[in-house]
Each structure stands twice: as structure tokens, then as C-alpha cells.
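Hi team,

As requested, here is the filled-out complex form for the adenosine-5'-triphosphate run. I kept the field names the same as last time so the parser does not choke. Let me know if anything looks off before we queue the next batch.

— J.
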Amino acid sequence: MPLNKFTCTDFRCLASAELEFDAHYNLIFGPNASGKTSLLEAIAYLGRGRSFRGAPTQNLVRHGASEFVLFGKADTGTRETVIGVRNSREGLEIHIDGETVAGAAGLAEVLPLQIVDPDIHNLIAGGPAERRRYIDWIAFHVERGYLDQWRRFRRALKQRNAALKENASHDALAGWDKEFVETGYEVHEARRRVLAITRPALRDIGAALLGSTVDIEYQQGWSTDKSLAQVLTAGMDRDRQLCATQAGPQRADLKLVYDERQARRLVSRGQQKLLACALILAATAVVQSHLGRALLLLLDDPAAELDSDSLTRLMAAVVELDCQVIATSLNPDLVLFPQPPRTFHVEQGDVVECTAKESC
Ligand SMILES: Nc1ncnc2c1ncn2[C@@H]1O[C@H](COP(=O)(O)OP(=O)(O)OP(=O)(O)O)[C@@H](O)[C@H]1O
Ligand SMILES: [Mg+2]
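And here is what came back:
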């Protein structure tokens, strides 16, 4: 199972928690402000090395404590791996099987996870950066060497922008252009391949969730009838004026096609949530099938903004994925799963497993 044991110390309102998860269905319930989202955020932090809500790490240490510590035992397909994260005044420390490692990429490899939270509609309604992160997450897991290509591209972009700010000579800029174009195409091609394998999964899941055609088109970030080198040359004056590179994969976006209209503008919030869920579930399906192992799906209050039919369809699609699910709910009696889940009750930051209904 993706995440077997999990312990957490001094993370947001959680002083200390120790949980053993079911391989399939887990439910965390409790009243408002009890610590449900905090628990999911702690688990997600262990798999990503950052907050899924974009919260600064120092805000996640429990008030009055000096550090937070997270540990988990995760099944990587062939064996169990122990991962740990400690955030103290000295900064973030990441451990994998007892070794200190640099960067959070190792965590993401051990514990690949996706999250659906009440802000998920931002994947549709928010800016393009969210959608680039979405496609890059799939690419990280399915495209060999993608992280390296992406980092080289970001470096080339940063250096080109710095050269533009310094009003560098034509020759100096041409040097950065070469690296920018080379790495830009690597990122671009990887994203196109990823999109090609994600679209069929999205169409299937979209049809199941929304009962209509859902598709995505990749907008590459520069005019499709020109090469990247051509647009850099043509846009040089504007880039110099704005001190930033205006065209390239850093401007890519996903255009969502829903009933032949652009989803971002036209759908209701509930439909936006379902559409975003279709994207997340499609990404999970693609990465799961590539890695050949179950992923972890965190559902923070999946019932929010959905009518009961929509929630039923969403949970049926989740069950179909056959991944490990940890969901939160205000209501312990809400039926989300086809079998009784392993259930935990959270109250004022204390987490207790409910072994029998009357124990909670
Ligand atoms: N660094 C921190 N130290 C201590 N408490 C914190 C910290 N950060 C947030 N909290 C508190 O944690 C509590 C639980 O928040 P959380 O978002 O986990 O609740 P929740 O159970 O998800 O509630 P809801 O049902 O409203 O979504 C809140 O009262 C919040 O103020
Ligand atoms: Mg919450």
C-alpha cells in the first residue's frame, strides 16, 4: 500500500498523531477546525516537501513548538521505504531510509500522491501556472529525466531574463537563447507526449463524471507557425522592453474543452470541481499505470459543493482507480466507499482510530 504508517509531531494543530492506514479506504471525520485538513496537509507535505495550500513552511509548525517532524512507511512496489521530514530553525531536512537527501524529488518518487481539496476548482478557474504544474507532475513521473530538463530550462530562462535586465549585448543573449531553445523544446515535447497519454483517460473519466465530452488542448506558449528560435528573434525588442522572455514553454497552458466551450468561463462551481477532479483522476490513472503501483489520493471534504448524484459519480470514479484513498468529512455517516473505511476521529488536534462505532 502507498502509505502504511504515518506519524506527525507539532504540525499545525496536531501535537502528536500516529496512524496506520488501510490499503484502500480511509476516512477522517471531525467538526470544523478539529484538524482534518491539517492531517491531510501533513501527509501531503511528507510526499511533496511543501504545503499543498501554498502555506509557508514556518507557519506549519504548531504554535509554541520549535519544529515539526513527519514520518511515514511507504510501499514502493517492491519494498517498504521509510521517509521523514523535519522542519526546524535550521531549515528543512529530508530523510529516505535513514539517509539525508537534498531536495524533495525523492519524497515524490517514494510517495506519489494527488490531492482534491475545496480549492480544486482553481485548476480550472485559476491562472495557467496551476495547469502547468499539473502537466509537469505527470511528466515528472512518466518521462525519464524530465525534472532535470525542466530545471535546465528554468535556469536558461532565469539567465536569459537576467541578461535582458542588464541590457546585455546581442551576442551574449544569443548564447542564452541557444540553451533556452534546446531545453525549451525538451520540456515542450515531453509535455506533448504526456498530454497524448492523458487525454484518453480524461475523456473516459470526464464522461463518467460530467456525462459529456471533456478534452484538453495544449497551448505551447508561442505561435504554432513559428519555431521557438524565430519567436525569440522576432520578440527581442519587446523582451528587452519588458526585461522578460514573453514566449516559450513558461507561458504554456491547457485549454479545457467542455461541450465545445471554454470550461473556465462557462461552468458552475460544482461543475468546475467535477472537471478539476476529472483532471486529477486522469493524472492519477496515467501515473499509476506507468509506475505499476497504487498511488495515494487525498480527498479533503469531497462532498463540498457537490450534490449527492455528483458525489456518487465522483466516488465511483475514485473507487474505479483502485488507489489508496484518505478522505475527510464533517459527517462520519456519509457513505463514500463501497466498503466500510478505516475511520479516524479528530477533535481539537487529537486523532483516534474508531475500532467500533461506539469508540468514537
Ligand atoms: N501553526 C499552527 N499551530 C496551531 N494551530 C494551528 C496552526 N495552523 C493552523 N492551526 C489551527 O488548526 C485548526 C484546525 O484547522 P484545520 O484546517 O485542520 O481544520 P479542519 O478540521 O479541516 O476544519 P474544517 O472542517 O473547517 O475544514 C484551526 O483552528 C487552525 O487555526
Ligand atoms: Mg478542512
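Two things worth flagging: The chain has a mean pLDDT of 94. The pocket of adenosine-5'-triphosphate (ligand 1) is lined by residues 12-13, 30, 32-38, 59-63, 330 (CB under 6 Å).

Thanks,
J.
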